[in-house]
Amino acid sequence: IELYNVKVVVLKPFRLGGIDKVQTAIDTLKSHGVKVVIGGMYEYGLSRYFTAMLARKGDYPGDVTPAGYYFEQDVVAHSGILKEGRLEFRPPLVDITQLQPY
């Protein structure tokens, strides 16, 4: 970290290996004075929910998209709904019927 004088790091939770790995990375980076941004990828509601929860630990607004931005159908309902300019997240409930085709 010191070798490259890193000031800010963008972490992608599911690219890095999941919630526990990101939490460890956040703790390590912050202990070295590095600021953190949590960003998403092309995610369904379930992973988008956890990305948003992790983004609360970041130093800058996270990169999380609203429901329906990338996918018309999702395995969870009411996760990442755009409401009055803010994303509203509720604990995700998986809609089993959305999994039937797979």
From TrEMBL:
Keywords attached to this entry: Metal-binding
Species the sequence originates in: Staphylococcus aureus
UniProt keyword Ubl conjugation present: no
Transmembrane portions of the chain: none
Lineage: Bacteria, Bacillati, Bacillota, Bacilli, Bacillales
Protein name: O-succinylbenzoate synthase
GO molecular function, one term: metal ion binding
